[in-house]
Model the fold of this input.
Amino acid sequence: MHLTNSTRPVTVRHRRLLRDASVALGCAALFGLLATLVTGRWHPLHEFDQDWIGGLHSYARDHRIWTAAVQTLSDIGGPVTMRILLGCAAAWLLLIGARVLAGWVAAQALVGWAAQWALKLAVGRQRPAFSDPVSHAGGPAFPSGHAMASAITCAVLVGLVWYRVGRRGRTAACAVAAVTVLTIGWTRTALGVHWPSDVLAGWLAAGAVLGVVTAVIELWRPGALARDVRRVNWRTRPRVQRVIVPSVRMPRADEPLEDGELDGPVR
Done:
């Protein structure tokens, strides 16, 4: 028996479960606190929302070209686009045999959509109202669906590429994801269709959904996500790999080539 090899996966799995549960509980607790402050019309938060949205609306009203560009960004990064991206990722994972990982991606999209509307209806917050709005959106405001969908999608996509790239690739992926999430959230307040606290609530709700879905799947199929990650790495690895060989002295032009010297690395 190899006790070290048999106990190590269990320890890693428990550590991952603790991490996922901590993310879910922490984000859910912060979301609950924010929802309580919003529904109780806590004065400092109410004033912050009003001041922020008022200034952005004034600027958007006076700069129509700027507003059109912001609206375009908001439309491109909308929930429909984000769920299409997740659907494509889930379909690709299913085709290469990573069924549990595909289910994880699909569950993030579906649970996120259901949680978004359940929370919106539960809180029932009204959107900002202006006599001269620059954009329109329907449904309750809290939390922001754009912010929630973009955060879930970007986190899932970063998770899918995390083990396929090195440190620089991970840094770049996280930077692109962060800029995307922040930009989409900001467009919703810049257009005057969401309060800043709506956007923050969307990010917190996204964290709760990500943690809950991941923890549930890990409990249901222990180790299956990690196995599918290895399967994806194996199925997508380069079929022709470069072999590192010791450098050899390049022959002079007047020297004959020995057998095998053409097999060395091309420089």
Notes: Residues 24 and 211 are 4 Å apart (CA to CA). The two ends are 48 Å apart (CA to CA). DSSP finds nine helices and no strands in the chain. Confidence is low (pLDDT under 50) at residues 1-7, 240-248, 250-267.
